């Protein structure tokens, strides 16, 4: 029922252009699924793509949940009911900026496990996952009772850098054995029997060339067309990809022969609870919002990108016979400098894509079929010129230089920038009376051709073709600005809900509850907890009252540090860190509080120990070693922020002095090879975090076995590296590591609390709660701003809605309307217990601008 050739996919032997919306069912409540699917279909998408998140359904080993917001079958059923095809991506690894890349946290407790490999321990758990998930996909295949047309094998496996042909084949065969008979697909992970896709935002031509060279007789598709981007705590707002750039890149896909596009994301959604992952570098922790700056925002409202794609989809659907049965043919048009062209031709017509690389609008002309045709193209834009396309039995479009949403259903829209002109030439197949209002002009040639010189002004106008049989055809001539006036916007604020707070201290007490004791702190998985907060406590003795440097030799999340009940500070450096702590003579108590900020979802370091996993040490030493580096044989010293170009294997060296320490931890980023006193770090690291280049994951290496007393020499391989953001050394004595640790869960909503009036006087973990009323008429969009708070998580009506951290870029947090009743409760846990007086909850009503005009978008 679904096949393909080199040009396109086919369903029931009919060619189809796949226009797919990435919508993750696990990033919005079930109550919102139908709405977002309806909007995707109304926007012109014919397919829905979703990952399937293993850990979302098996949070604890052997406990499977496909109910409520996890009802995967219902999501597939909705897609089928709405006539939407589905691309299912069950992994088992999905990345997706999702905790652990979709793997359950408890996998990391399995001794000897090797993720994403053909290793038997890993595969036995994958088989159990497949036993649960693949039958659901099977039921909804196009060949059965549903609309699933493709199933992806793994995800970006070749980007993982570990070729494992047997692993990919095991996954493929496991799906086949469980009934999958629709085509398999991969992205950066080719396996025999699957169609390979690419993932990218720009450089479509480069991706097309790779597919043509490496994968014969397959249609070209982009599985993740990154039309937006995710955000991470402390990073910049990710709105750098504009609607204008999106339109250009969409046309790049058409001109390079892509006939399957999956917009990643089309709707991003929210990382509710603690599901946000950790991507790439040292502290790239995903925000709670996964809005992604895409077509439908986090609150299910269409954006400008939605309108761009809606017009693009109408255009593509109209010319589907052209693009799905096309050849890419170069065309030698005489055009001004920085203006290029690419011709796509098929038996059903052709399109010439004119590309303007200039920073300004260009008005020019081209010789097409022996005729000079004028056109106008915007700066850094692509203009499709349509030629020789039949419109029913009424007329043939010989040439069109304006953009269009398509010519179907007896009406069309042609648009351009306000104040610009476009050119339309028609061959009438029947006699017609032409009504063409000013300032548009038209001419009728002796050969029956009609040429229109169209003006796209501030007001829309209609060109009417009235045929002898009483039928007519309307062509609306509008500006792009007019089309985009229908984009919804939010009323400033329809309701502001009063909040009256109560407070309760989170007592860092280890005398009761689920306390586990061990010689060193237990990471989250070893303790047996998915995410949230863990507290750590131990006693140590000091010979005198003083400030001492405590080295934390392995941490993977920010750590709040208390000594003798007093807040000392927060460790923000990850991997290893050091802090000055005031201690008193005699017994001291060191207490730490850690929030799991998300496991790696993309790197070779997946499965890192979250929280604290090694015992801190007293009287240590911290050295930043980014400056003072020498190119071997030269006398000029360099800083790692500006590394000189080094040819061949010349050493890049730096020494440090060690007096009395026997342990050393090195933390760095973007480095592929490090030697310590002539010994390779790779040899020393064993199963520790991998070093890697560029923007990839940082490295944590225990270099103690290579450490010497006195001078020690480091040698870096910095070929093709221009800078390194972090390179730190931590020294300590093994005999001064603090032992006998207690580990306990904290910040548990269900635990009983002593509520009182709000009066925060000290920095201390604290709870706040308030009730608020909600009226549906105040709008379905409900947001909370946690201004003035520090870092923590919050709940509404008992459901955790995510982490918050006031270091940006996220400032507002979604409260799903489906979660609300007339009376509601919000609870906040703040690590520093700051005053919630500036926290506000507001409702918004989506509005459409009053000057909205109805235009055809087929």
Automatic annotation (TrEMBL):
Q: Which InterPro entries would you find in this protein's record?
A: BetaGal1-like_ABD1, BetaGal_gal-bd, Galactose-bd-like_sf, GH, Gly_Hdrlase_35_cat, Glycoside_Hdrlase_35
In this chain the Beta-galactosidase galactose-binding domain maps to: 765-823
Q: What is the top EC class of this enzyme, as a single word?
A: hydrolase
- SUPFAM superfamilies assigned to the protein according to its UniProt record, in alphabetical order: (Trans)glycosidases, Galactose-binding domain-like
The record's keywords, sorted A to Z, are: Glycosidase, Hydrolase
Q: What Enzyme Commission number does this protein have? A: 3.2.1.23
Residue span(s) of domain Glycoside hydrolase 35 catalytic: 11-314
**Domain of life of the source:** Bacteria
Which Pfam families does the annotation name?
A: BetaGal_ABD_1, BetaGal_gal-bd, Glyco_hydro_35
Where in the numbering of this chain does the Beta-galactosidase 1-like first all-beta domain appear?
521-624
Q: Which GO terms describe its molecular function?
A: beta-galactosidase activity
Q: Which PANTHER family match?
A: BETA-GALACTOSIDASE RELATED
User: Family assignment?
Assistant: Belongs to the glycosyl hydrolase 35 family.
Name of the protein: Beta-galactosidase
